[in-house]
Amino acid sequence: MRFIVKTIVVALALWLTTFIVAGVSVVPYEDTQLATILTYLLVAAIFGVVNAIIGGFIRVVAFPIYVITLGLISFIVNGLLLLLVDWISGLIGFGLEVDGFWWGVLGALVLGLISWLIGLIVRPSKD
Q1: What is the tens place of the pLDDT at every residue in 77-111?
Q2: Is the separation of the CB atoms in 104 and 80 below 8 Å?
C-alpha cells in the first residue's frame, strides 16, 4: 500500500515538476487524458524502482564521498538517476524526457522538494 501511495505522490510531483523545469517533460503513449495519467504513474514507478535499487547501492558504496562533500554529491546522483529513468523510459518509446545533465539535476532537486512537501501532507502509514 505504501508503494502505491508513494508512486502516486511521485507522479503528482513529477507532473508539477514538468511545469516548473523547462528541460523535463513527459510524453504519453497516446493523446488522451487516461494515457497521460498512466504514463506519469508508470514513470513514477520506474523512478521508485531505480531509486530504491540503484540509488540505494550508490549511496552505500559512495558513502565516503557523501561525507566528504557533506551530502552535496546527492544532487549529482539524483540527477543521474533521473537521466537513467529517461533512458529506460526511452527504451519503451514514451515517458520521461530530460534535455541534459543539468536539467536532470535541477529536475531531481525540484522533484525531491515537491514530493517531500506532498509527502508531508499525505503521510502514508507505516503498515
Answers
A1: 999 999 999 999 999 989 999 999 999 999 999 99
A2: yes
Distance of CA 126 to the CA centre of its chain: 22
- State the CB neighbour count (10 A cutoff) for residue 73: 16
Nearest to 82 by CA among 59, 66, 106, 58: 106
pLDDT in tens, 31-57: 899 999 999 999 999 999 999 999 999
What are 54-68's pLDDT values in tens digits? 999 999 999 999 999
Q: How many CB atoms lie within 10 A of CB 19?
A: 10
Element (H, E) at 8: helix 2-20
User: What's the grid cell of residue 86?
Assistant: 529517461
Query: Is 80 exposed, middle or buried, given 0-12, 13-18 or 19+ CB atoms closer than 10 A?
Result: middle
Q: SS in 3 state form for 29-65?
A: CCCCHHHHHHHHHHHHHHHHHHHHHHHHHHHHHCHHH
